[in-house]
Amino acid sequence: MKPCPSGPWDEDDRELVAHVAGQLVADTRIQGRHVQVTVQNGVVILEGTVESAAIREAAGRQVWAVPGVQDVCNMLVPDAS
Predict the structure, then answer these.
(1) The CATH number of the domain where 51 resides is what?
(2) How many domains, in total, are found in the chain?
(3) How many whole angstroms separate alpha carbon 10 and alpha carbon 28?
(4) Does residue 81 register a pLDDT over 80?
(5) How confident is the model at residue 75 (pLDDT cuts 50, 70, 90)?
(6) In which domain, by residue range, is 23 found?
C-alpha cells in the first residue's frame, strides 16, 4: 500500500490518505497487494489489483467509512489469475 507521492496536497488530503491507507493495510485481504491510494480535495482514488470483485467492493466500502471522504473512485481490478 503506498500513497501517491505527486500532486499539490493540502494538509487534509495528506491526513486522509494516511488514514485510508491505514484502514486498507489493516485488512488481511488487501495486505501484500499493490494498491495505490491518491486523495485530492477529499476524493479518494484506489488503483491496483485485488484478489476478487468482492474484495474490491469491500475496499470501497471501507474507504467510504473514513470520516472526511467526499467521494471514492474505485479503480481496483480483480486479479485475473
Answers:
(1) 3.30.1340.30
(2) 1
(3) 30
(4) no
(5) very high
(6) 2-78
